[in-house]
Amino acid sequence: LTPQDMVGLTVLVTAGPTREPLDPVRYLTNRSSGKMGYALARMAALRGARVVLVSGPTHLEPPTPVETIQVETAAEMHDAVIRYAHSADLIIKAAAVSDYRPESISTQKIKKQAENLVIPLQKNPDILAELGRRKGQQQILVGFAAETHDLDRYARNKLSSKNLDLLVANDVTLPGAGFDCNTNIVRIFAADGSVEALPQMDKNKVASEILHRTIKLLRTHRGGR
Ligand code: C5P
């Protein structure tokens, strides 16, 4: 039986990749499937939370008791997240936001040119860093990091530079972890300096483990409610 320990809480989850258009037929994206974020949204709703899911393009069915907002670009995800952030007790940013977007979007299909084509890219806003800067006293902020190397160093850096409470890191080169996989192998870094390495498990189970830890943090922040 799922514990009803999130009743009364509002949870904002982001999931999936973003898609950055280049011209009417092309875009820049990444390999995120959205499975981890959808599992988090589903499990939080099962535990009684009100859940808002802001999702980039995925092939997944939106979880039923969840308000799902479909977005495409990082800019759209940014706007949707900022709109809901102030009312959220817990924000989990599982989306793989594209760090860059094409500087301009061509209204016509870009035609074949010389041997090399250079496409100028512009940095997207870091949504999570912005949430960290404006984090409410009672708010818990959880980020994700998908890395291919130097996982621990990047994870600890992200945790502190983005002002997070938890950072869930996975090495996407490991079999059984990361993109489009039904399982994940994560390490959970906490703001108190602790780190836990979880074994390979189903993404629903990883979601439950993450939620369990956020509930403990929320209780401590709110004086043992
Ligand atoms: O720095 P990096 O992109 O690896 O950090 C990953 C975390 O930051 C994820 O939680 C992701 O959702 C978030 N992020 C974001 N906006 C960006 C880039 C990443 O919210 N532009």
TrEMBL record:
One of its GO terms (cellular component) is phosphopantothenoylcysteine decarboxylase complex. GO terms for molecular function: FMN binding; metal ion binding; phosphopantothenate--cysteine ligase activity; phosphopantothenoylcysteine decarboxylase activity. Its cofactor is FMN; Mg(2+). One of its GO terms (biological process) is coenzyme A biosynthetic process. Residues 11-225 are annotated as: Phosphopantothenate--cysteine ligase. Keywords: Decarboxylase, Flavoprotein, FMN, Ligase, Lyase, Magnesium, Metal-binding, Multifunctional enzyme. This is Coenzyme A biosynthesis bifunctional protein CoaBC. It comes from Desulforamulus reducens (strain ATCC BAA-1160 / DSM 100696 / MI-1) (Desulfotomaculum reducens). It catalyses: N-[(R)-4-phosphopantothenoyl]-L-cysteine + H(+) = (R)-4'-phosphopantetheine + CO2; (R)-4'-phosphopantothenate + L-cysteine + CTP = N-[(R)-4-phosphopantothenoyl]-L-cysteine + CMP + diphosphate + H(+). Catalyzes two sequential steps in the biosynthesis of coenzyme A. In the first step cysteine is conjugated to 4'-phosphopantothenate to form 4-phosphopantothenoylcysteine. In the second step the latter compound is decarboxylated to form 4'-phosphopantotheine. In the N-terminal section; belongs to the HFCD (homo-oligomeric flavin containing Cys decarboxylase) superfamily. In the C-terminal section; belongs to the PPC synthetase family.
